[in-house]
Amino acid sequence: MHKVVSFAQNQDLEFKKALHQRVSAYFTENGLSKAHTPGMLIKSIILLSIYILPFVAILTLGLPVWIVMLLYFIMGVGKAGVGMSIMHDGNHASYSENQKVNTMMGYTMYLLGADSYNWKIKHNKLHHVFTNVYGKDEDIDSRAILRFAYASPLKKYHRFQQYYAWFLYLLMSLSMVFFDIPKRFIYRKKGITNISRSAFQSSLIKLVVAKIIYFGVVFALPMLVTSLLWWQVVAGFFIMHFTAGFILSVVFQMAHVVAGPLQTLPDENGKINDTLLLHQLKTTSDFSKGNKILSWYVGGLNYQVEHHLFPRICHMHYPALAKIVEATTKEYNMPYYVYNSFGSAIRSHYNTLKELGRTKVNYVNV
User: Has residue 366 got a pLDDT over 80?
Assistant: First the structure.
């Protein structure tokens, strides 16, 4: 894999021009801001409350253990919602027209126990540019005993991954909490964090302090102010993260590791023959667009095509943009993948995991 990967230029210009003109017209004609909607504030309050208020109740109400565990589960639901709807938009600079507000919303990642800086590298810099490019997009890297890319080595145990993957998805949130610090050094070694040594050290100190505060709050505080035993606090912590991890994993996988979206490799010169715009269309899928409750909760991540085309537009505009994108892709004969229901996307992901566990090479597009 080449360190530098490039995309084709000066292709699909008519499609690109038409698409951007139509999207811009939507905002102009309706007098809307691309990076702000009044509903985002209400939504943020609701999701942060689902995450924080159960913890306040655990600390103050002296509840039975079974209710405490239920509240930790609810915290996991809120935690995933904050990550998908608030942190995600903040770190894409699409939450607000004010960059300070975007930064603050991006920092909600620290409330979740993970690192905003690492996330922006992994998600914005790698995944959004090199979507489904093996060796560049970490989201399709092999993890433990999971195989997400046809170009990665195939092992005998992978033939069962469509069954055991769902259990490993529980660990996604925990992996960020516990491996953020070594990940920072890995990115530094690869040259991805191209900042000065002093800036790197400063960011590392901030990360370590954030971790200490997070673990102090989620572990030490309940042990000090409640009658919960240490193992009950630990159990609640894992319930919360298992819940969030499973939700986040499933939502992200259904956009890229399903039938339809391609996985790509550059040629021997590190070039991909598609433009970045066409590449995003070929490697991404929408799902369950008609489910308004799901769309609200997952921060529009079921409109993944629109998100990859317009990552700096607030996700609450995606339902309207999807109509424009779908019509324009159809007019210009461009790919547009969509699963009409949540269930159909789940089934496709299951079948794709099954195929990945049996096939050495599939639709790897050079």
Answer: no
Q: How far apart are CA 90 and CA 337, in angstroms?
A: 26
The pair of three-digit structure tokens given for residue 191, joined into one six-digit string? 């040259």
pLDDT above 90: percentage of residues in the chain:
77
Alpha-helical regions (H) of the chain: 13-30, 38-60, 65-82, 88-91, 99-106, 108-111, 116-119, 161-168, 172-190, 197-215, 221-225, 230-256, 276-282, 292-297, 304-309, 318-331, 342-356
Burial of 104 (0-12, 13-18, 19+ CB in 10 A): middle
Q: What is the mean pLDDT of residues 257-269?
A: 89
Q: Compute the distance between CA of residue 322 and CA of residue 306 in angstroms, rounded to an integer.
A: 6
Q: What is the predicted pLDDT for the residue at 199?
A: 84
What is the number of residues in the chain?
366
**Domain residues of the chain, as ranges?**
6-365
Do 264 and 365 form a contact (C-beta atoms < 8 A)? yes
Report d(CA 114, CA 211) in Å as an integer: 8
- Gyration radius of the chain over CA positions: 21
Nearest to 130 by CA among 253, 266, 312, 15: 266
Q: Give mean pLDDT, residues 89-106.
A: 94
